[in-house]
Amino acid sequence: MGIVDLNGLEVRLGNRIVLNGLTGSLQGQAIGLLGPNGAGKSTLINTLLGFHPPSKGTARVFGLDCQRDRAEVRGGIGYMPENDSFIGNMSGVRFVRYMAELAGLSAGEALERAHEALFYVGLGEVRYRKVNTYSLGMKQLVKLAQALAQGPRLLILDEPTNGLDPIARQRMIQLIKEIRQQGSVRLLISSHLLRDIDETCDEVLILKDGRIAALCNIEEERRSNRSFMELETVGATEKFSVSIRGLGCECACFPGGRIKLVIPDHIEARDLYVIASEQGVQIRRMNRRRDSLEDIFLRAMDNELGRADHVSL
Amino acid sequence: MSVYKHIYRAYDGKVTPVWTRVFVLARYGFAEAWSSKITIGLFTLCLLPPIVFLIGIYLANNSIARALMGGLDPQGLPINARFFLILLEVQSWFALALTSWIAPRLITFDLADNALPILLSHPISRFGYVLGKLIALLASLSVVTWTPCLLLFAYQSYSSPLPWAAANLQIAAGLLAGELIWIAFLSILGLAVSSWVKWRVAATGAIFAAVFVPAGVGGIVTGVLRTKWGFLLNIPFMMTSLWQRLLGAPESARANFYLPTGAIVATLVLACFICAAMLNARIRAREVVRG
User: Fold this and answer.
1) What global pTM score does this model have?
2) Which residues span the domain enclosing B60?
3) What is the pLDDT of residues A108-133, one digit of tens each?
4) Residue of chain B whose Cα is closest to the Cα of A183
5) Would residue B11 count as lying in a domain?
């Protein structure tokens, strides 16, 4: 059983299919949710929280159905929404306490945890100020504090670094890393910033047009010894890429004759030069490098069908 | 987490039952409503009529006090259904003023800062959210409506030298039922209007408008079409008729304007359904763009 299990999940909003047959099991300590705008990241989060009922299939969090066992699922989730979402008329500590009480903490415990959470995220000194007097970065932090105060099993962060300046962003990333290292809480982080996910997550789910474009374990990918190579070519690049696929390489073509490929152990760089020579293709540059999240993402986006099996590494 | 250690600590304590979360909302709503000085001012104002009526009951039952006041005629101050009807009406309209101030405070702060996604991401349903706010508003209105009315009834029962209470139990039941119907209607109306008007001052005006504008329209309908059914839009008229019947007081409306009790109740129920639909449309964690 994964943290999040999706089984043919389809969500319609009006007549539009926003999530289309998502199937997969997310098991990482920190799971990144990537995708371009409109890919369905926020809809997936809303579905996990029980805000949108699935039109087909199921979504489960810790084995509980997100629709049928909504209250129980929500009880274990701390949610930090993407947009401004707070009660501006309340002081920071009162707001966080209120949210913790709604999550099921007694009034006394909630107050204690509210103070702790606000100190933890760095808002200790301003906790008695009204939330609507906070800066954008502070508002992001108070949303994180309210999500943490209840001590959730799963922390869902929707675009946590949205609108933050570089220092505040770094601080937020650092906090997320600390929470991850502590180990008692799983994270699901939605972002369109690859760097944020790369720095904080060990598993990534990439969505494209409401489908799963890729689902992979970043840590495993990093640990694997597969050779990644980047070529810059001139000539019949498409034909060349078909030929090197014939050798057993996985490759993705990019504009400007750029090719990124994974070379099996038995293939040497020399074999590539031989094929290039036979087809009259010039290899202008050849870089050996490790696969990055950017590559995984670009390959997933490059895939026209957007099927997970076509892009798995 | 710890204030001095600045580290994250998971929570492993007990959690409260899910059904009690509604009361967390109600408690915070109640505190929010009563944190305003204007609420306190209105509340104080609402208590003035019961004090005047209390003096009236005292004078009606105390011959010495009447003598000291210049020999007031005891027949001039009858404590009957009509007396309590006036009290009920006065308190009910004060309750409207209080609703128009409190209801927007309960809802608009949440809507203005888009707090619903966070609030509803906790183990609380949309129905639970509205119920919590409704409880806060009902509790606030109860303090100025049926509670002082019943206390005055109890005082009259105690003060009267005659066995008054047993003969007038319908008044007590009418006071309780009439005020409960009114504050329930006001509460749902106040929350529904507030959920659609984010600006608090405008929401206050809109609540008054929701009560009195249909009354004007109803008057026009009655005048133009020469039918009594236009009064079904006139909430003050309807409620007065209902209160008179509940307390057993003589009816003030002309016979040709008599509205059946069933029609009044059906109109109130229909209005409550419309308000519930308005709340259902607005109290959502996410706005769904249909297309």
Assistant:
1) 0.83
2) 18-282
3) 999 999 999 999 998 989 999 999 99
4) B10
5) no
